[in-house]
Amino acid sequence: MSTNEPERPIRQIVVALDASSSSRGLLEAAAELAACFHTELVGLFIEDANLVNLAGSPFFREVSHFSTRARQLSSEQLERQLRGQANQIRRLLIEIAARRQVPATLRVVRGQVVAELLRAAAETDLIILGRVGQSFIRQQASPRRLGSTTRGFLPQAPCLTLVLQQETRLGLSVVVVYDNSAAAQRALNLAARLVQEREGHLSVILLNNSADAAQQAEQQVRVWLQAHALTAHFHWLTATNSIRLAQMVAQERGRVLVLPSTDAALQGEALLALLEELRTSVLVVR
């Protein structure tokens, strides 16, 4: 375990917002994290260029959330809706950030959603998004499925990424995966910070290819935790198995899983498959 590398500070948190009802939960969690790390919060509202380009087309229809009736939506009507949504989100951001006493601003951009998220992620330290968001297209998706934006963004994300379940209280029960990598040490640092700030419970899943290696890693982590006045409950996992990992997280009643995405079995499509097994928020560390 390396302890000489200084922890990289989190200076800014970006939270991706839309007009869905989940935005309040995302903002509450984002403001809680911003207060925990004493950092700036930026709300990001992306006006989907595809929708803007389609507006006014005879084939483009808006379906109300309160009925099954569809109506044609003009470009002017869509522009008004987008402005109204941005203003509503700005008011909500100001309200929640003021309660947490964190500096906050709203950034409104127009473009391809995943591309704009990646552009924002390249300039920040941590980005937060929900499992699913709002779509103008009515869908009957499985509750386990990730939204298309999250699926498109996460495998390419260059920074810390928190994929948030609705109604998550951060720091109450944190589970961290540790595999002896530099990313795992950073994941442990972040998990410890969350637990210390909220007086929560920490569990450590040691991912190693043998029982001997797991035992050695557990001793190292225990020493590190003791130096930070922390204790933890330990599990060993000698092979990366998304189903077993999800079971361990559920067993610990984890609200947040801090996951280093260094193992090949925790990257790309495998990472997305794992998130669909989990019923908890996941902070991906690279």
Describe the fold and architecture.
The protein has two domains: 12-164, HUPs (Rossmann fold, 3-Layer(aba) Sandwich), CATH 3.40.50.620; 173-285, Rossmann fold (3-Layer(aba) Sandwich), CATH 3.40.50. The strands form two sheets. It has a ten-stranded mixed β-sheet with strand order 5-2-1-6-7-12-11-8-9-10, with helices on both faces. It has a two-stranded antiparallel ribbon with strand order 3-4. With 286 residues, it is of the alpha/beta class. Helix content is 41%, strand content 23%. It has helices spanning 23-37, 49-54, 75-100, 113-121, 148-153, 182-198, 211-227, 242-251, 268-277, and strands spanning 12-17, 40-48, 61-63, 70-72, 104-111, 126-130, 160-164, 173-178, 201-207, 233-237, 256-260, 281-285. Residues 63-68 and 134-141 have low confidence and may be disordered. A hairpin with a 6-residue loop joins strand 3 and strand 4. Helix 1 (23-37) runs parallel beside helix 3 (75-100). The two termini are 17 Å apart.
Helical amount among residues, as a percent range? 40-55%
The DSSP helix count reads 9
Outline the biggest β-sheet: 10 strands, mixed
Radius of gyration: 20 Å
CATH class of the largest domain: Alpha Beta
Topology at a glance:
Elements lengths: L11 E6 L5 H15 L2 E9 H6 L6 E3 L6 E3 L2 H26 L3 E8 L1 H9 L4 E5 L17 H6 L6 E5 L8 E6 L3 H17 L2 E7 L3 H17 L5 E5 L4 H10 L4 E5 L7 H10 L3 E5 L1
Parallel strand pairs: 1-2, 1-6, 2-5, 6-7, 8-9, 8-11, 9-10, 11-12
Antiparallel strand pairs: 3-4, 7-12
Helix pairs in contact: 1-3, 8-9
